[in-house]
Amino acid sequence: MEPDTPISLASSTTSVEDSASDSGTDPLTESGVVTPASSTDTPVSEALSSTMTVVSSTDGDGISTDSDGGAVSEGSVVSATTVVSATTVVSATTVVSATTVVSATTVVSATTVVSATTVVSATTVESATTVVSATTVESATTVVSATTVVSSATTVVDPFANGCQGLLLNGDGTAMTIPTNCSDTYTCAQIKEIFDYTEVRVSKHNEKRQLHETTNDVAYDLDIACQAKTWADHMAINDDFSHAPSVDRPGQGENLAVTWSTGTLPSVYTPEVGWYDEEIPYYDWVTGESTDVSKQIGHFTQMVWTDTTHIGCAESRITRTSLGVDTNYAYSVCRYSPPGNIYSGGSLLIEKVQPLIVQ
User: Does this model's pTM top 0.85?
Assistant: First the structure.
C-alpha cells in the first residue's frame, strides 16, 4: 500500500469488508468500482395542272381587176389550230385555185384545179398521271428516363461492430465482441478504459496465482468488467461502500477496495496489495481460517481460488468536499467467475487454495 494513502482494507482510515460470493454461504470479500417522346407526321402531296393553248390565225389577201384586162383572183387561207390539252390536233388545209383566161381570138381556157387536202390528224394523248403520294411518317419517340436514385444510403455504422471499429482486439488480433452490458451503457472510449483496467488487474492477479501450486492463470471477461464498472460508479456516486446484491451478479464473486486522500490520488491504485499481500500472512493453511479474528483473508482466497477462470474489474473516482476540504476517492471492484470462497459443512474448501510453491 502506497505511503500516506489510507485504503479501506486495514487502517484507521481504511474500510474493507470481506469478499462476497453468491454461493449462499458466508461472504468474505469486498471490492471497489470504476467511473463510467415526341412524334412527327409529315404528309407530302403534289397536284398536276392542265394547260390548253388555242392558236387561231386567219390571213386573207384578195386582188380584183376589170374584165377587159383580165382578172386574176387568188386567195389563201391558212387555218392552223393547235390544241395542247393533253390532246394535240394539227389540222392543215391548203387550197390552191388558179384560173387563167386569155381572150383574144384565141381563147385558151385552162382551168387547173389543184385541190390538195392534207389532213394531218395526229392525236397524241399523253396521260401521265404521276401521283407521288409519299407519306412518310417518322414516329421516333425516344424516351430516355434515367432516374438515378442514390439512396440516401443511410448507411448506419454500428460503432460497436468489429471491436468498436478496431479499438478493442483480442490477443490474437481478432476483433473483440462487445457485450450488451457494455454497449447499452458505455461508449467505446469508456469500454476501452474498462478493458485496459481489467487487463492490468488480470496481470496482477496472475502474478500472485503463479506463486501457488497447480493454480491456473485467469483471463479477462469484458462482460463482467462492465458490470463491475456499474457497481463501482454506484458506490462512488452514493458514497456506498458495500457489496452488490447477489441477484445483480449471478455466478460472480466480488472483491472491493477503496482508498482516499486529501491530496492527489496516485494515477494507478493497486488493490491487490491489500487483497493479497496484507491478508496472506493471516491465512491458516490447515483450517482455511484467519489466524486473527480481526484480520480478513477472503480477498486473498478469492484471488487464488483454483476454480476461477475469468475476472472483470473496474474503477470509479470522485471528489467530495466537506467543510471546505476536498477529498479524493478511488473505488475498485473485481468480479470473479466462477466465484470462490465456497464453503461446505461450514468449512472453506481449502483444496481450492493451493499452497505456495516452495522456493
Answer: no
